[in-house]
Design brief:
- The complex is a heterodimer.
- By secondary structure, chain A is an alpha/beta fold.
- Helix content of chain A is 34%, strand content 23%.
- The longest helix of chain A is centred in the middle third of the chain and has 21 residues.
- Chain A starts with 11 loop residues before the first strand and ends in a 10-residue tail after the last helix.
- Chain B folds into 2 domains: 48 residues, no CATH class; 85 residues, Beta Barrel (OB fold (Dihydrolipoamide Acetyltransferase, E2P)), CATH 2.40.50.
- Chain B contains 2 helices and 8 strands; from the N terminus they run ααββββββββ.
- In chain B, β5 and β6 form a beta hairpin.
- Helices cover 9% and strands 41% of the residues of chain B.
- Chain B is globular and about 40 Å long.
- Classes of the chains: A alpha/beta, B mainly beta.
Chain lengths: 359, 133
């Protein structure tokens, strides 16, 4: 495999992490009831419920709360953040950055970079990797990477079973202050038409047979194998493996193909309870693993985005992790805060009733 | 056009900052140009505690058009941990389970829009606190 990425010491890591999941849950059986899907169609997805944003929530408010939690864990002054990256495919404005909104809300403005990134479900991960580069090079001391989505799915489309809402955020900072250091990364991208949304269209489309083998599996396996080749690491060197989670079965399948046992995947697998939070999907898995990880443990993280690409990270937990775990709500606190709704309330919250004016 | 007004008030609304009157010592939210208790303009912006107790509430069922998606809309009187009282919308509540005395915390939510093509307005609401007893 040709290697475009230099082997180098990354002088950066995760100083603080935070999550957010809205409290509303729509059971997948309720979606099947409304649209008449047969049971086998949705049970195979291994997703019991999906999280739904409330009527006053959006990718900005959710990204803000995840960032606020990451700040609490880091203990740093937000004025020290030199870059804010916001990865989403459900930005509230077509033109106007969400990154500046969140930077202003947390108190990082005005002396900071702020950028919105787009790469389907992988933009948040690109923000994380760019943050590692900026901090490691010494250009900024801290950077904030956020993945947040109120994922879109056309009513009645099979995507509706899983498209859900949530956010995760990470403060990247110096290695010496990190709760988890990033040992190495590897990125694998190609032009693949598995999933897209045209400009000014409300819902994405997907290339049916393209979504699995040529997209999800090829890119995640390409990135992880690239990381293995670059570092010499093997599945047995890792305590946890976290993959992008478009449903509850793909992460287990890709783990098996790469040689990871199920037990290493389950702690970071949140999709069966809340669905696919798109840009927060694998990153919420990382947040949940950091919530419970012990010093010295090694984590494989491999987010994926359609279009298509995957980043593989090798992350090692440090002695600082335990003192930060209880400084903010954990992923499990948000998972426990749930209130089941029916399709009618979901349609209201998601503004699917066309007779209602937006706003 | 709400743009200039909202922009000027964004910091207190985004960061839940109140105003401390340096003459009478009382704090109010949202900050005004003069202290609502003594009229002094000798004010200083101070961050407010994000947790408090719900002292009273009312639920609006007939919600005007551009906020109707939030119906039923609970409005709460909250006593913050420093004793300051604020009136704010409540969110993430099931109306029939609302009760006085519950612990609540400040969050940032959408609180309006300047029409369908205008800017989105964000500000503080309160929800039942995570991990409350």
């Amino acid at each position: 495999m040709a290697n475009s990425e230099n082997k180098q010491v990354i002088n950066a890591g995760i100083v603080g992490w935070g999550a957010y999941i809205p409290m509303y849950r729509l059971p997948t059986r309720e979606i099947a009831r409304v649209w008449g899907w047969p049971e086998h169609q949705y049970k195979a997805l291994n997703v019991s419920h999906k999280s739904v944003d409330g009527p006053d929530e959006d990718s900005t408010t959710m990204g803000y709360e995840a960032a606020y939690n990451a700040l609490l864990r880091s203990g740093i002054d937000p004025k020290m953040i030199g870059a804010v990256f916001f990865g989403s495919e459900s930005k509230v404005y077509a033109v106007k950055p969400s990154a500046t909104l969140i930077a202003e809300m947390i108190g990082a403005t005005p002396d900071t970079m702020a950028s919105d990134l787009e790469f389907a479900c992988r933009a948040g991960s690109e923000g994380l990797k760019a943050s590692l580069g900026l901090v490691s090079s010494g250009m900024v001391k801290y950077a904030l990477a956020i993945g947040s989505d109120t994922s879109q799915a056309e009513p009645g489309d099979v995507l509706e079973f899983t498209a859900s809402s949530g956010a995760a955020a990470f403060i990247v900072g110096p290695r010496s202050e990190s709760a988890a250091i990033v040992e190495d990364t590897y990125t694998y991208v190609t032009d693949t038409p598995d999933f897209w949304r045209r400009a000014e269209k409300p819902y994405p489309r997907h290339g049916e047979g393209f979504t699995g083998e040529p997209a999800y599996f090829t890119h995640i396996i390409g990135a992880v194998k690239g990381l293995f080749e670059k570092t010499g690491l093997r599945p047995e060197d890792f305590d946890y493996a976290i993959f992008h989670q478009p449903n509850g079965k793909f992460p287990l399948k890709v783990a098996q193909r790469l040689g990871f046992p199920k037990e290493k995947v389950l702690p970071g697998l949140v999709t069966p309870y809340i669905g696919n939070t798109y840009n927060a999907s694998a990153l919420l898995g990382l947040a949940r693993v950091l919530d419970q990880a012990k010093p010295g443990q090694r984590i494989l993280l491999a987010p994926f985005g359609s279009g298509a690409g995957s980043d593989a990270y090798s992350i090692v937990v440090t002695d600082l992790v335990e003192e930060r775990q209880d400084k903010a709500p954990k992923v499990d606190d948000y998972l426990a805060r749930s209130y089941e709704i029916d399709y009618a309330l979901y349609a209201k919250f998601r503004r699917i009733y066309v007779m209602l004016p937006r706003g | 056009m709400v743009l200039p007004v909202w922009w000027r008030k964004r910091i207190p609304r985004y960061r839940f900052v109140g105003a401390l009157c340096k003459d009478c010592g009382r704090i109010h939210y949202p900050p005004r140009n003069a202290c609502p208790y003594c009229g002094s303009r000798n004010l200083e912006l101070v961050p407010l505690p994000r947790r408090g107790v719900l002292e009273s509430y009312s639920i609006v069922y007939s919600v005007p058009g551009d906020n109707r998606l939030n119906a039923p809309l609970p409005i709460g009187l909250i006593r913050l941990e420093n004793g300051v009282r604020v009136v704010a919308e409540l969110t993430d509540v099931v109306p029939e389970k609302l009760e006085n005395g519950i612990e609540v915390e400040a969050v940032i939510r959408r609180i309006g829009e300047d029409g369908e093509t205008g800017t989105i307005l964000y500000g503080v609401k309160f929800r039942p606190a995570l991990g409350r007893k």
